[in-house]
Amino acid sequence: MAGPATILREIHRLRRHAKDLQAEIDRGPRLLKAQRTKVAKQEEALQGGHDTLKRLKMSSHDKEVQLKATLQQINKHENQLNEAGSKKEYDALKTEIAADKKKCQELEDEILGHMAEIEERTAQLPALEKAVQHAKAEYAEHEKNAQGRIAGLTEQLNKALADIQQIESTLPSDIRPQYDRLVAARGEDAMAAVEHRTCMACYTEITAQSYNDLMLSQFVFCKNCGRALYLPD
Question: Residue 59 needs a FRET pair 20 to 30 A away by CA distance; which of 25, 40, 107, 173 works?
Answer without folding.
Answer: 40
